[in-house]
Amino acid sequence: MTNYDFDLITIGAGSGGVRASRIAAGHGAKVAIIEEDRPGGTCVLRGCVPKKLLVYGAAFSADLDDAIGFGWEEVDPAHNWGQLIATKNTELDRLAGIYTNLLSNAGVTLIEGRGRIKDEHTVEVNGKTYTAERILIAVGGWPSVPDIPGLKDHAITSNEALNLGHRPDQVIVFGSGYIAVEFAGIFNGFGAETHLVYRAEQPLRGFDQDLRDGFSEAASARGIHMHPGVTIAKVEAAGEQKKVTLNDGQEMVVDVVMAATGRHPMTDDLGLENAGVTTNDKGAIVVNEDSQTNIPSIYAIGDVTDRINLTPVAIAEGHAFADTIYGDNPRRPDHTNVASAVFSMPPIGSVGLTEEDAIAKGINPKVFVASFRAMKNTISGRQEKSVMKLIVDPETDVVLGVHMLGPDAPEIIQGMAIAIKAGATKKDFDATIGIHPTAAEEFVTMRVPRSG
Ligand code: NDP
Q1: Where are the domains of the chain?
Q2: For residue 206, how far is its CA from the centre of ligand 1 (angstroms)?
Q3: DSSP letters of 334-360?
Q4: Rounded CA gap, 23 and 28, in Å?
Q5: Ligand 1 centroid to 205 CA: how many Å?
Q6: CB of 66 within 8 A of CB of 380?
Q7: How far is ligand 1, taken at its centre, from the CA of residue 176, in Å?
Q8: Cα(217)–Cα(212) distance, rounded to whole angstroms?
Q9: How far is the CA of 143 from the centre of ligand 1 (A)?
Q10: Is the pLDDT of residue 348 over 80?
């Protein structure tokens, strides 16, 4: 028997690493977790949580506009950006404290510093080595910035966008994935002149086509300047500002350029080569269904494995790992029908196959679509339309996908995700009596398919 310092060393105290570590410790394992920042990881410190707090803050401007239709007098309140960032940071301090306490209450040893793998059972932190029977890599991802002249020097990423000292007056957001459209909504909501510059013809690649159309229309009606089909050719300093040249020759001078051009696994300088851990062409750690790498003692979960890069998925992977190895309860994380949301304005929620996915799989789905102005928008005068869509298998009647653009879409789709997980059929949807008046009731009252 070899004597290790720990049963498990986890590298990275983000959502996945913390969950795996404390569940493993709860099952009786001796666990250490290594973190160079405060515990919390991307989601709590640099992602979902601070982003959503800013989304809440930014949404008040549209609410104030809408209120006028309901008889409220027009007001133009000043916004204190510094106060928002400070209050948001206080909340993050509180959450990081909770994460630290969760670890110590579970009996997990927190080692501060950057972990580097020395061999298949050894990790080095600040010149000191620690050994473990197993190592779990949960180091997450990091923003990728394309190699475009001046972009790396002059653009911020989501990391910095959450901590700007001032609200920019003009901003270019580059990209049109989750992060780009969410931050475009934030900047626009707080009154910045916001440009979304993206190479595709439509934002949000991978989402349902009707939702992408609806979002483009709504975002531009809300004041975001949409620049489809272009890319940034170069960025230069222009005094305190940035001069951006697009590949169609257009030039813009703005306060802030934000690159929201994807994320990559954070495997740099992790020492994976010392243990011979295999990565793929994107640098992601290759794992099997048990989150085990090609080296039997080394496991990996979350964004560093580039499976489905969402916090609850990393948590599910970490929990399943800990239960399987330390809890005598072998189970695998289920990556099917994982719902996700985009906290854009208006927001999007989605679970299961899109119409395009279904067709690509050789299914000719029945497609039910509702597109309508939400009740609140009738009196508010806002022209924005919600879009709701059901994708149904014509042979089995099983609902393969549910998609929504519109107020509360993420909250509504979370409930729909349970139905999809349970294998609900369109008949089950039809047999469900709606809650009136809601937008969600549309999902149980769609009768005539648009196609299929
Ligand atoms: P995405 O992969 O969603 O989007 C990347 C965007 O950058 C796309 O619009 C892509 O364009 C564009 N892009 C990439 N490379 C280039 C390039 N060289 N030149 C021009 N444009 C480029 O990444 P995000 O950074 O938005 O988000 C990363 C991940 O984080 C997401 O996949 C998601 O898993 C997670 N996330 C989830 C959130 C949520 O659940 N609400 C919120 C935020 C992040 P194109 O489409 O043309 O390829």
Answers
A1: 6-143+264-326, 151-261, 346-444
A2: 10
A3: --SS--EEE--SS-EEEEE--HHHHHH
A4: 9
A5: 8
A6: yes
A7: 6
A8: 9
A9: 9
A10: yes
Which ligand 1 atom lies nearest to the CA of residue 146? 18
* Architecture (CATH level 2) of domain 6-143+264-326: 3-Layer(bba) Sandwich (3.50)
Interval 92-145: pLDDT, tens:
999 999 999 999 999 999 999 999 999 999 999 999 999 999 999 999 999 999
6-143+264-326 and 151-261 in the same fold = yes
Verdict on whether the full-model pTM lies above 0.90? yes
Active site residue 319: no
Q: Is 119 exposed, middle or buried (0-12, 13-18, 19+ CB in 10 A)?
A: middle
CATH 3.50.50.60 fits 151-261, yes or no: yes
What are the pocket residues of ligand 1 if the criterion is a CB atom closer than 6 Å to any ligand atom? 146, 175-180, 182, 198-200, 205, 231, 260-263, 309-310, 340-343
**pLDDT band with cut points at 50, 70 and 90 for residue 1:** low
Task: Residue 16: name the closest of 44, 50, 57 by CA.
Answer: 44
Which long-range contacts link 308-313 to residues 24+ away (Cβ below 8 Å)?
308/335, 308/338, 309/141, 309/263, 310/338, 310/340, 311/15, 311/16, 311/42, 311/43, 311/47, 311/48, 312/338, 313/338
CATH tag for 346-444 (out of 3.30.390.30, 3.40.390.10, 3.20.20.70, 3.30.540.10)? 3.30.390.30
Q: pLDDT tens digit string along 40-90? A: 999 999 999 999 999 999 999 999 999 999 999 998 889 999 999 999 999
Q: Ligand 1: which of 174, 178, 227, 348 to mutate, judged by most atoms within 8 Å of the beta carbon? A: 178
**What pLDDT digit, counting tens, does each position of 238-278 carry?**
999 999 999 999 999 999 999 999 999 999 999 999 999 99
